[in-house]
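Hi everyone,

Forwarding the result from last night's run.
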Amino acid sequence: MVKPVLTKRNFVKRYAKGEFGNHSPTWKALDRWLLDQRIPGTNPRALFHIRNRVAGGPTWYNLLAREVVTTWGKITANGVDPSTLYISAMAPSEKTIFQGEVSRGVWSYELTYTTVAKPMREALKEQTHVARGIIAITLLRKFLCERSYDWLMYLLDNYEGHTVEFSTYSVEWGTLPGYNTVFWEVRKY
């Protein structure tokens, strides 16, 4: 059994190291992100989002590279501690086919999901479904590629009592080739 994830801050530290599998390219802080943006060939039209190390904290979506610094500055000027923020590449939300969160309950799998092609928080506000047991497993097997499904089962097996948050796309995307699903969060808190 692996060490449980008891805080959002602990999760983010482990997430950035790739402990939870395929994820969005992520930078721990603005200075790290700025260093990578100086690499020749960086796409000026790429989108990013500023994420929060505080559970339930706000997220700023769909920022062009030139907007990241100014948005970060506005956020921190309003009193937000910069150590609570980090940056990730914006996933191809328009290619989302399935997303939500799943856990293994006492009796069966519990899946809350949506098929709306938007960032997850927005999508779940627009449409939310719940499935349990064999229906949940059937949906996961239908949408997640084999590698993504196997990795999800690994996470549920090894992070007992945790919830796994994910987004599945119609294309491969993330830090690992061959996956159509990004694992956004593994949490027990």
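The chain has two domains: 25-89, 92-187.

Cheers,
N.
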